[in-house]
Amino acid sequence: MSDASIDNLRGIGPVTLSRLDDIGIRTLDDLRSMGSVEAYRRLTFMLPRQVRLDALYALEAALRDCHWLDLPQDVKAVLQHQGRIIDEALRRGGVTRCAL
Hints:
Largest sheet: none
Structural class: mainly alpha
Oligomer: single chain
CATH architecture: Orthogonal Bundle
Helix content: 55-70%
Mean pLDDT: 90
CATH superfamily: 5' to 3' exonuclease, C-terminal subdomain
Number of helices: 5
Number of domains: 1
Strand content: under 5%
């Protein structure tokens, strides 16, 4: 495990770094623990008009220490599917935990 800062992760720029900090991701371990899909979900719900699927690719690629274009096609397909699920949940709105 690594408590290394995410400041130098490949493909993660200053805007994304600030957004990740807003959702509590400050170290590589934080990102690994949360995972790229959950981090993307939180970013999308926080900034729905500003976060796109390429952010999910970038987060996954950063965890794999590669460029997002080098992600295997099967990984991209899984990420696209997860992104669609998140987008649909966002369109439906929040889910309540109790009957109103």
